[in-house]
UniProtKB/TrEMBL annotation, chain B:
This is Protein DltD. Pathway: Cell wall biogenesis; lipoteichoic acid biosynthesis. Coiled coil: none annotated. One of its GO terms (cellular component) is plasma membrane. It comes from Weissella cibaria. Signal peptide: none annotated. It holds the Pfam family DltD. InterPro entries: DltD (IPR006998), LTA_DltD (IPR023896). Keywords: Cell membrane, Membrane.
TrEMBL record, chain C:
It comes from Weissella cibaria. GO terms for cellular component: cytoplasm. Pfam families: PP-binding (PF00550). Keywords: Cell wall biogenesis/degradation, Cytoplasm, Ligase, Phosphopantetheine, Phosphoprotein. The keyword Ligase applies. The modification O-(pantetheine 4'-phosphoryl)serine is found at residue 35. Pathway: Cell wall biogenesis; lipoteichoic acid biosynthesis. This is D-alanyl carrier protein. Residues 1-77 form the Carrier domain. InterPro entries: ACP-like_sf (IPR036736), DltC (IPR003230), PP-bd_ACP (IPR009081). GO terms for molecular function: D-alanyl carrier activity; ligase activity. GO terms for biological process: cell wall organization; lipoteichoic acid biosynthetic process. Transmembrane segments: none annotated. 4'-phosphopantetheine is transferred from CoA to a specific serine of apo-DCP.
Amino acid sequence: MMNWLQELPNWQPYGDPQYFIYLLVALIPVVVALLFGKRIKWYEGLVSLAFIVLMFAGSHWQQFIALIGYIIWQAVMVFGYAKYRQKADNKWVFYGAVFLDVLPLAIVKITPAVTMGQNSLLGFLGISYLMFRSVGMLMEMRDGVLKEFTFGQFLRFMLFMPTLSSGPIDRFRRFTEDYETVPDRDKYLGMIEKAVHYLFLGFFYKFILAYIFGTLLLPGLEHEALVAGGLINWPTIGVMYAYGFDLFFDFAGYSLFAVTISYLMGIETPMNFDKPFMAKNLKDFWNRWHMSLSFWFRDFIFMRLVMVFMRHKVFKNRNVTSGVVYVLNMTIMGFWHGVTWYYISYGIFHGLALVINDWWLRYKRRHKKQIPHNKFTEGFAIFLTFNIVMVSFLLFSGFLDQLWFHNH
Amino acid sequence: MLKRLGLIFGPVIVAVVAVIAGIMLMPEDNNKHDYQAEQRAANALTPIVFKNQTLKQRALSDKQHRFVPFFGSSEWSRMDTFHPSVLAEGYHRSYRPFLLGQRGAQSLTQYFGMQQITKQLTNKQAVYVISPQWFVKQGEDPNAFKYYFNQAQALTWLQHAKGTTADRYAAKRLLAMNVSSSLTGYLRRIADGKKLTANDQGWISMKLRFLNHEDSLFADMQLGNNYTKRVLPKTANLPKTYNETKLNALADKYAAEHTKSNQFGIDDKFYQQRVAKQLGKLRGSQRQFNYLQSPEYGDLQLALQQFAATHTNVLFVIQPVNEKWAAYTGLDMKMYDQTVAKIKSQLTTQGFTNIADFSQSGDKQYFMQDTIHMGWRGWLAFDKRVNHFLTTPQSTPTYHMQDKYYGHDWMTATSVN
Amino acid sequence: MDVKTEVLGMINDLFLEDVSDMMDEDLFDAGVLDSMGTVELVLEIEAKFNIKVPVSEMGRDDWNTANKIIEGIKELQNA
């Protein structure tokens, strides 16, 4: 039945130069129409659909089935809860809806851990980003700020092609407002200008810098580090920095592409990175690194947990509350990355580091007069934050799993 | 609006045009012969050189210096004093090895690499080292394949693919390696036995023209220099004139100095880094290894098909395994011998009769440098056969290729009859 | 007491900052508010004015200045 899908070529998003050429050519009518103040919804839908199909075509066709199944599941959750919420507001129904919404992703994340690396058939590229979007909708419905929306709006938001596979994670109300209003010509020209800039910056990041760090430097360093062995060695330090830069330039490059294509379609998808290695402390870092994810966690997990704890006065001290929630929040993020010891410890590492960071900031505020603050201390803060982040990325990379436990 | 659009896209268009023009105006110069650069490429052992058509063509078409392609894999990086490149250099042989292949490279990689040098292979000689370890159940690892693969190899191949059994097999294997999506359409047509359209061929030759200019452009930017750093200095260790007894004695001396730490005759450094820490874990670890059933047999057949098409006279070398190590890890030597017999049968039945079979030498003293690679005495034995093959007149072989070697039956046959 | 005085008083009590001379400045950028502080302020507002503030509304674009917070409270009171 799915033969036709298997026959098609598989095009990974933003994978090679040809992908950009095909996509940009397909978008010309969209751009021209927007310049004249029109949005051709049917055509945009068609292009999006075609590129989504190609993303899962060929050997990935099973993922396409999983995607369709998942969208149906999410639609049932979101519209079911929307209908319920018009009449009542029981928190257990809300928790239940969120639980069921997250369930497929949880199965996908847990499956490899319990089956020695087998992937769940429910999984597909981008599943977690779809979950973020729909859970965000549920939360806003609970709060009563999101009430009415159509099935078309839901589908367009969930399946927005430029950001489907790896974000940035947009919010329904923001996205839909952009979509339903066509930017005026002056503003849109400004967006095109930015898009061109982001596109070339993305090329530089992903195809040059990520290539240098990830393809030219990293394999050699990993090999040397494995040969040297032991708990830690110099080449591993090299792996740490090469991996960290590769991770950033690869993901930031990808994010820039997603933003570029969004802008050309007249949607101001939020940025994902803001010079993260210039962060002065860890809190600042999370306001600059994978921003759409960390803001999602901040708004929908951190703040809500704090709210619950404070409302029920679980802890007497506000600093204890924030500390506990920091660790919980980041540990959940670790689990989300995958159920392996290194992702989870990456989460816990950041949670604990944020607690220390918070303590330091409070201490500093109380001793404003004694603690010097100048260009030099600021530079040192940036340097220290950068290196702590790099250590956490070494954990995140999973390389230590190879080095210590020889899991190749 | 148009003015603003012009300001936004103008520089982009100018830049794109300038880059394309720059690359296309760069002459495709495959006849520039600079001996030092050629030696550098011949000993570089990098995927960059492996993929670069210009570098390979320049060296292999040099009329003043005879470079011979040495196809193989990780053994080439064992550059000790008795390495074939060092011996050829030290004794001013009439040939110099052009080393092709590194860790993880197997026949499929070599076959697509050859597409870029078919003209240079025609009516010439070559050396091809086969490691029985290649013949694992899943064949070549797609990640390793991608590491040595570029689109130009496949596009060049597609220009000549006609839909023979060999072509269809190669297309299927390439699809299985999951390479660039832009090739999928073409490959599927070939795999299905259909011809490419004139339109397809037009696109292919246009892309190739661009890629080949690009290839030329980067040929002059080589990195590293194994030739001056690892080959030339070692020639000083060699006796002034070639003398087998003296060389053997020297090999024994070096080997004895470097194999003090273990009972397997493995080089100390290799042993410390790769074996010592996991020694207990490795005992019996190869008991289940089986090299008899593998798509690698079909991939080897592709390479043979290429040699037949270009009338290349090839010396095949079969690598031994360190028998002490094999005993420790429980490698089934009967299975290993059957594998060698199967490979040899595939070669000889089709007319490839120049075979240097070292499979029975894995227990000789100082023959192996580590677990599966020759060194010292092994390199000397290798060199003796290779030197003889390349410097004495050889009769022209006649090949008769058989498509059954692409068949499932052969790839899964456990005995040769 | 009017809403403005109450809100300024709350901010002063909670974060030890007097923001009466920067009513339109972004409180997140100024370092007065953070996610933790936002929640504290929301709970405080809910208790004092007997309204329910949706957490989704406390985003960084909507309730990010003293004036916007006061506006928001008035709107919710009249809703």
